[in-house]
Amino acid sequence: MEVFKRKPKEVDNNAITPFWNVVLNIVIGIFAFTCVFPFLFVIAISFTDEKVLALNGFSLIPEKFSMAAYHFIFNTGDQLFRSFGVTLLVTVLGTLISLFLITTYAYVLSRRSFRYRNFFSFFAFFTMLFSGGMVPNYIIATQFLHLYNTIWALILPIAMNAFFILVMRTFFQTSVPDALIEAAKIDGSGEFRTFLQIVLPISLPGIATIGLFCTLGYWNDWFNALLYIDDASLVPLQAMLMRIQNNMEFVIQNSMQMGSSFEIAATLPTETVRMAMVVLATLPIALAYPFFQKYFVKGLTVGSLKE
Fold first, then answer.
1. Gap between the Cα atoms of 123 and 117, Å rounded
2. Are 277 and 268 in contact (CB under 8 A)?
3. Do the Cβ atoms of 197 and 224 come closer than 8 Å?
4. Domain span at residue 250?
5. pLDDT digits (tens, 9 = 90+) for 200-237
6. What angle (nearest 5°) sits at the alpha carbon of residue 90, between those of residues 293 and 290?
7. Which of 93, 144, 232, 249 has the highest count of CB atoms within 10 angstroms of its CB?
8. Number of domains in the chain
9. Domain membership flag for residue 33
10. Is 137 helix (H, G, I), strand (E, B) or coil?
11. Is residue 284 part of a domain?
12. pLDDT, tens only, 275-302
């Protein structure tokens, strides 16, 4: 008697895959829209007339288009462009210095032949848990390093980041084979030459990821300017926009005490100016992100798959 075996039912993967691709694309599209929508909403408010905004509230489509908020900010004269130039200089120079310090420190920690790597790893990790505080940092920066009212006061205090050092150390350990470095040594290459010509070119994803975080940190920094900068020619963009907002609020509060709040409220675009400040502070760095995206995504996923 023959025994017939039932053939297992075949699953048509070609029919399932497009369906789930559509579902995942819809979910990701909705998530992306929820991330972009607030910024689009801020842009729309910044171009809305202040009086219409006070009467009808916020709207995604401006009921009455107005550039008053941007005119109010740009009426500060050349200070805005000077502050933008300071921020651009600090961001570019600070990012390069940070990448040099972080990558060299992390590369040394990733080398097993370095005798004191455990000590310096613990030294970097310890600074993540404990810090001297704001007052000792201020004393060191102003009294010992004499950074007050200098461009270096906006760069050096945040040039080193222990978390980024540990991330790059792990990246070097997992992505740079020891055999490659040993082969370079056999060919007569020194440590510094090996680091520049071999390690760095194959570590671009990790460097771009850390570089993006450093760029965001320098671009958004305003606290160091509040502590160390009094010279108007050295005020960065974020600190300058904050000073405009504080001055505007100061004028409104004083006018309310003098009984002229309605005249001041009618001439100062308060809400739209705040939104315009967000646009001016966020849009340049948002436009720069696509240039880092390829390396950024690769840097985040490195180590998750092994060939």
1. 10
2. no
3. no
4. 77-268
5. 888 888 888 898 889 989 998 989 998 999 888 888 98
6. 15
7. 93
8. 1
9. no
10. helix
11. no
12. 888 888 888 877 777 776 666 666 555 5
